[in-house]
Predict the structure.
Amino acid sequence: MNVIFIILLIVTTSFLDTLNQLLLKSSINILNLKVSNLRNILSMILRLALFPRVWLGFCFCTLSLFIWLFVLSKADLNFAFSADSVHYIFIALSSRLILKEKVGFRRWAGTALIIIGISLITWSNR
């Protein structure tokens, strides 16, 4: 199968996983859940289970899983898993741009190293 197509599918799974994480994080932030005892934990689970944003996140997660299973059927695990590290880039960018979280210099430097590593692994597969 075409390597470019596989890479596109891997990027798609990473993007869907990022959307899932953004939805889950924003759900927790909106609900302002505090966990201090068993009763609070059960209340938190119930509130999350009734929050539509959480279910949308699960849908993205499920779609990502099915695409990932297809990728695994067509590509070497070493290549696929390494290339899937692109989600670190998506998470860093979306954390900064969408969630307005601080992303320090070291985190950006680490993300840059991940980009270099992904590139090296991708080029070594050709």
Remarks:
- Residues 3 and 52 are 36 Å apart (CA to CA).
- The chain has one domain: 3-124.
- The chain has a mean pLDDT of 88.
